[in-house]
Amino acid sequence: MNQRHHLLQLSGFFFTLILCACARQAVPTGGPKDATPPKVDTLTSTRNFSTRFSEKRIELVFDEWVTLSDVGTQVVVSPTLAKRPELRLKGKKVIIELPEEDTLRANTTYTINFGSAIKDLHEGNPAENLRFVFSTGDYLDSLSVSGLVADAFSGEPVDKISVMLYETLTDSVVRKERPYYFARTNKTGQFSIQNVRPGNYKVAAIDDTSGDLKWDGQNERIGFPDAHLSVSDTAKNPVTLKLFKNQAKRRLIDDKTIRFGLQKLIFTAPPDSVPLRFDAPNLTYLTEKIQDTLLVWYDMPEPAGWQLFIEEDTVPVKNLSREDFFKNHRLVLADEAPVGASAGKFAARPAAAPAASGPKPVKNVSLSPAKAAFLPFNTPVSAVDTSKWSFFLDSTRVDHYLARPDSAALRNVRIQVAWKPGKSYKLTLLPGAVTDFYGVANADTLQRVINVLGEKQLGSLTLTLENLTPRTRYVLQILNGANVEEERFFDAVLTDKKFTFNNLQAATYTARLIGDYNGNGRWDSGDYFARRQPEPVFTKKLDPLRANWELEASMRAGVSDSKWDAGKKK
After folding, report:
1. What stretches of 412-512 show up as alpha helix (H) in DSSP?
2. Which residues contact 310 (CB under 8 A, 6 or more apart)?
3. Which one of 196, 221, 243 terminates a domain?
4. For residue range 116-137, what is the model confidence (pLDDT) as tens digits?
5. Is residue 334 part of a domain?
6. Is residue 565 within 8 Å of 556, Cβ to Cβ?
7. Are residues 102 and 184 in the same domain?
8. Is 513 in the same domain as 538?
9. Are residues 429 and 398 in the same domain?
10. Does one domain contain both 176 and 216?
């Protein structure tokens, strides 16, 4: 009996262990991730799509616990209210309190778009396409306005842009009043305004950074159509809006004396033909334009404080030491110094840094055989002495070349040679080879190796432009990334025109065509106050250009993302 009882105890012990082990293995691992968005329980929520609505409190009950986020940007009420509604959570319920002091308009359909403001608690899945619609009248307006907002220059869709519909049709309404209807664009630049009543509306797209649903007239981008929008049962065309920063009147917004001999002026617009006057009779100067900045390079034998007069502005220029400037200034290649740098400041090493051992490596640059080479310097170049130049192709001296200051870029020396494809050239500039605006010559020996690409490293592009508008000025650019590799300016005579670009490096290029309506050789933004649209830009990414290939392509003005013809081997 005792033995039997002992065996029963052991059996029970092992049975318990097995049960515990089984219990441990049965612990759930969480299961698949919940991807189901929260849904509204229509039976217990305030009735959606109702008429003769007069409530100030709306309750939406969901089938699971939810959270609120980005209410200020995601929740959009259209037509707009004088004050934002208040949203709060209570369990699975979202409560929307309409402002007591805001009287709802009679016979008007309202839409509350929630965007992605309401999400489930655990996985953050947003409620999909959630809208609450009601009418204070006997019926719901059922028309809609949809479309796309894209950047006027790049053509890329723009997210979180407010698209406005106004009943008031005056131009000033975008600055003075909140819109009647509005919506925001999504990541693809698309917008949709639902439950709109028939009528004529003024339309504007605004990059509403201030969040007040009004355009500030200067800093915020805007887009508008050429005509008012008629909303009716038969009007179904989508609205396309080009977003741009308004073309501001040119004015000086900042100035800075970089050092003796260099004044920096920053404008609101490109400083084309800016009239300059000054009260220093012995002063000499040059001007260099870089986008919206004007660099004034100056010299005066007897330094003193002086004033620069620019249209309606007066800029005082500090009295800085000319002697200190010349004591430190030296002329070097620009990639060895920042723009306008002088003196040994950029050349001097920190005290703790050890001196470099051995000769400085010579920089190599690659060049297409059809192009000129450029040597960029840190200050404007005034003269070149080629007797102090040493130019070699392998071991053969190059005697027939042209080197001179570049009239289009003050700090460049332009070198033209009948380059031999696939060869390397070694250029050495001895001291005194180049002299700058201040009369200072290079004190160091400067060297470059220029590698000319071979024919088998290059390809050609033949681009046919179609659907051009005769008697219109255009700018055609071939871009490699952000760099403009080729540029052509032309007046369209016929609707088609063909261009051939030889000796291009193998790469994937983009063609950009600008309608240069004012003939200034660049793209210009629009002007809302003058009702002028930005100049049109059409871009197209080409098929990759491979080495030793010809690529034939066609581009239709007014159309983007058309198909390009495939290249064919030479």
Report:
1. none
2. 252, 265, 274, 275, 276
3. 243
4. 899 998 888 988 889 999 999 9
5. no
6. no
7. no
8. yes
9. yes
10. yes
Which amino acid, 556? R
- Enumerate helices (H) and strands (E) in the chain, giving the number of each: 4, 41
Domain identity same for 445 and 466: no
- How do beta strands 66-68 and 118-120 pair? antiparallel
Based on the fold, state whether residues 230 and 261 are members of the same structural domain.
Answer: no
Per-residue pLDDT of the chain (570 residues; tens, 9 = 90+): 444 445 445 455 444 444 444 444 444 455 567 778 999 999 999 999 999 999 999 999 999 999 999 888 788 888 988 888 999 999 899 999 998 877 899 999 999 989 889 999 888 898 888 999 999 999 999 999 999 999 999 999 999 999 999 999 999 999 999 899 988 899 999 999 999 999 999 999 999 988 888 999 888 999 999 999 999 987 677 899 999 999 878 889 999 988 999 999 999 888 988 889 999 888 999 999 998 999 999 999 888 889 999 988 999 998 999 999 999 999 999 876 555 555 333 333 333 334 445 567 889 999 999 899 999 999 999 999 999 999 999 889 999 999 999 988 999 999 999 999 999 999 999 999 999 999 999 999 999 999 999 988 899 999 999 999 999 999 999 999 989 999 999 999 999 999 999 999 999 999 999 999 999 999 999 999 999 999 999 999 999 999 989 999 999 998 654 332 333 334
For residue 133, CA distances in Å to 69, 80, 111, 191, 342 come to: 21, 13, 5, 17, 67
What is the residue range of 473's domain? 457-569
For residue 35, tell me if it sits in a domain.
no
Q: Is residue 87 part of a domain?
A: yes
Per DSSP, the three-state class of 29 is coil
For the record, the structure tokens of 476 come out as: 């055609």
| Amino acid present at 264 | K
User: 53: which 2 tokens?
Assistant: 């609505």
CATH code where residue 407 lies? 2.60.40.1220
In 3D space, the residue among 288, 294, 297 whose CA is nearest the CA of residue 269 turns out to be 294
Q: What gap in Å lies between CA 74 and CA 64, rounded to an integer? A: 21
Beta-sheet strand order (sheet of 510-515): 483-491, 473-480, 510-515, 537-541
Same domain, 555 and 475: yes
**Domain stops at, among 453, 486, 510:** 453
Q: Can you name the residues that pair with 157 across neighbouring β-strands?
A: 150
Q: pLDDT of 515-536, one tens digit each? A: 999 999 999 999 999 999 999 9
259 and 218 in one domain? no
Number of Cβ within 10 Å of residue 349's Cβ equals 10
| In contact, 87 and 96? CB cutoff 8 Å | yes
Q: What is the CATH number of the domain that holds 226?
A: 2.60.40.1120
Report the length, in residues, of the chain: 570
Number of domains observed in the structure of the chain: 5
Whether residue 396 lies inside any domain: the answer is yes
